[in-house]
Structure formats: C-alpha cells, structure tokens
Amino acid sequence: MAYRSLQEIIEFCEQENKAFWEAILEDDVSERGGAKADSVGKMQTMWQAMRDAGENYDGNLRSKSNLSGGDGAKMQEYSAAGGTIGGEFMAEVIAEALKTGESNACMKKIVAAPTAGACGVLPAVLLPMYRRGVSEEKIIEALYVAAGIGQVIAARAFISGAAGGCQAEVGSASSMAAGALVHLRGGSHKQILHAVAMAMKMLLGLVCDPVAGLVEVPCIKRNVGGAVNAIAAADMALAGIESVIPADEVIDAMKEVGMNMAPAYRETARGGLARTKTGRKITAGMKW
C-alpha cells in the first residue's frame, strides 16, 4: 500500500474530496491492477465469508482440544431470555465475536481480519449493524476503511501476536472495527482517526499468552473485549471526544511496547495465563 500513515490518508481525502474508503479502494486497484469492480468483488466475497461464519455456526461443535465451543450459543440463549446488562445490541456483538472465534478453533472458514486470532472482532460489530438495516454497500465501504487502517498498522508496527503481543492482533482488529463503525455512522475523517487511536490505546500492552499454544484460551474471549472496546471508542469519537495522542503515534507506541515485551508474552505460551496452575495442567493433559 502506498500509505504509511493514517494522517496521509485523510490529507489525500481532503485534498481530493474523497471518502476514506474511496482512497483505500483506489490504492488497492493501483497496487493490484485490474478494475474497481474486481476489488469490490473480492471484498464482497470476504463479507459473505464473515456472514457465513455467523449464520452457519453450530453450537454443538467443540474444538479438538475441547477448550472451546458452545459459548456463542449460550450467549444467544441468554440474550433471548431478556434482561442482559448491555442490551440486545451488545449481547449480539458478544455472541458474534464468540461464534466466529469458536468457528476458527473448530477449523471452519473465517476471515483473518487482520489475523485468525482476531477474526471475531470486525464481524462482531458489522453483522449486528447489517441486521439492523445498514446496506451491504455501506458495509463494503466500512470494510475498506478497516482494511486501510489495518494496512497502516501492519506497515508502521505489526499485526502478529508473536511480534507484538495481543495488542497487535486484537488491538489492531479493535482499531479497525472502531474506524469502520465511525464510517457507518457518518463520522468525519478525523473522527475515524480518533476512534482508531482510542481503541488502540485502551488495549496497549495486551499480552499474547495462549494456553497450550492454541488460539482458544484466552483468545476467543479477547475478541469479545476487542469488539466491545471498538464500540466504546467509536461512540466517544462520534461524541466529539478526541485522542490527545494522534493515531499514527499510538501505532508507533504499540510497536515500541511490543518490541520491549518479554518473549514470554508474545505467543510463546511461556507466561501469563498459559503459565498459571490451570494453564499448565491443561497443557500437560493435551494429547498432541
């Protein structure tokens, strides 16, 4: 991608009177060649895969490790009974994050957005919006916004838990989702960047400590945290609340934190939850 900063993207948008998503679409076409329709067609395919993961979820499935499966169904049942603390929309977001994460653990088709370990965050916020009347056209635009944010994060820092901890995976996904939500609600370019910055700041330093080295515990539930965090960041930005630290600088800070993070907290399963008494017991009982 030609862009290495989010500020550069919005400066281009303001100069050319373009929407954020249009700048990313045009950049993708320029880089890959072909027609705009080809790029949009690929994005539509990814959106359909996100929808399929949610719609084809099977609450009876369990992962091979038996560490995950069924929680998405439990959340749906709890929501259907009424009385959730966060309301119907938030309950649906939580359920979708769990469902997609569990689908990944059960070897079903998902979209790495930006990674498989963080695959539940973006669909968790987009699917409920779509079901409430947001058009597929607007969802595709939001996916381009998310893609541009993710590409800048990958260029300036990293999106891998092994490189920078879970802040680089769920943190990046949360920032992408926050920016996408701001776009869907008609926010400005600057509000998109403030949402990105606030979402990333709130997850800065998040470690990657998978029990038994599997992308299940605590990864799936961290997708829930990333999705809920994205909603909070988007709402703050839309309310006019601004991040004191610009988005690009927050991304740079994430890189610095990740580079200084001990290897035990970068997907090695040698620290954090993976090294708790229960975590070690689970690991010892695994039949590989």
Question: What would you say this structure looks like, in words?
Answer:
With 288 residues, the chain is mainly alpha-helical. The longest helix has 21 residues, at 136-156. The chain has one domain (6-284). It has 13 helices and no strands. It is 62% helix and 0% strand. The mean pLDDT is 97. The termini are far apart. It is globular and about 60 Å long.
Main sheet record? none
Shape: globular
Cα radius of gyration in angstroms: 18 Å
Percentage of residues assigned to helices: 55-70%
Mean pLDDT: 97
Instruction: Give the helices and strands as they follow along the chain.
Output: HHHHHHHHHHHHH
Distance between the ends: 40 Å
List keywords for this structure.
0% strand; globular; mainly alpha; 13 helices; 288 residues
Blueprint (SSEs and pairs):
Blueprint (H helix, E strand, L loop, with lengths): L5 H11 L3 H13 L3 H20 L15 H10 L6 H19 L15 H11 L4 H21 L4 H4 L5 H15 L4 H14 L16 H20 L8 H14 L16 H8 L4
In summary, what is this structure?
By secondary structure, this protein is mainly alpha-helical. The chain has helices at residues 6-16, 20-32, 36-55, 71-80, 87-105, 121-131, 136-156, 161-164, 170-184, 189-202, 219-238, 247-260, 277-284.
